[in-house]
């Protein structure tokens, strides 16, 4: 279980990016974090594994307050948190298998990783994970030979190779087309459910969040202004999170996108006839 207590972050010279955020994510819960640009979503996610240092507050994962840990303990604690990134963060010139195994780097002695000699158990686990994300046949391909969706699958397998207790997912579909986005989101949610793995997913796309998340937290100007089930995310709630102007612009954007997709479909059908 993750519990954030009074978490705040102020960057030098700026307004508070995060103000007094208190939030509990129980085992197995998949929580979507939404909010307008600059609301503090990335800051919140990064304060949890201290890629960003919180100014005040506690980050309890199990019995441990990660905000209090020194360097060595923090390195050990970070193994417990898997992270999936928007831009995948793969090592492009390494193979898919090597990228997945790099999720074990926090566990294997340096000389083994340096010589790329991972224990047999880790290699077997990496194959199982590649199978689970549908990339068994790509194990020996170089990462730079993969599509965006395939790269994100490698990113998911790498995060799972850590055997994490918590998954932090930062805009996993922002670089993907709508169909691949849904496939990736489905894969992440299925895997979390299979493993009882709690996850916080920073997600721009409101319909995607409503379709796949169990719980949605809305941030605005660094504060939680909504916390509820996807079904409770009414027009009023969305206006509270995004403000009337932005929310109407987003809806118009969605409508334009849907119209463009329908138009492309009509043209394809006309060609096929
Ligand atoms: N390294 C930094 N230094 C100074 N200010 C920062 C830094 N990172 C973020 N901020 C500021 O903190 C606030 C929150 O930013 P953050 O990136 O967490 O928002 P976000 O909700 O993730 O936005 P987006 O959806 O655009 O990624 C913004 O005002 C931003 O300008």
UniProtKB/TrEMBL annotation:
A molecular-function term among this protein's GO annotations: ABC-type phosphonate transporter activity
Pfam families: ABC_tran
SUPFAM superfamilies membership: P-loop containing nucleoside triphosphate hydrolases
InterPro entries the record matches: AAA+_ATPase, ABC_transporter-like_ATP-bd, ABC_transporter-like_CS, ABC_transpr_PhnC, MetN_ABC_transporter-like, P-loop_NTPase
Keywords, alphabetical: ATP-binding, Cell inner membrane, Cell membrane, Membrane, Nucleotide-binding, Translocase, Transport
Entry GO CC: membrane
Domain ABC transporter per the UniProt entry, residue ranges: 2-246
Annotated SMART domains: AAA
Record NCBIfam families: ABC_phnC
PANTHER family named among the record's database cross-references: AMINO ACID IMPORT ATP-BINDING PROTEIN (PTHR43166), PHOSPHONATES IMPORT ATP-BINDING PROTEIN PHNC (PTHR43166:SF6)
Protein's name in the database: Phosphonate transport system ATP-binding protein
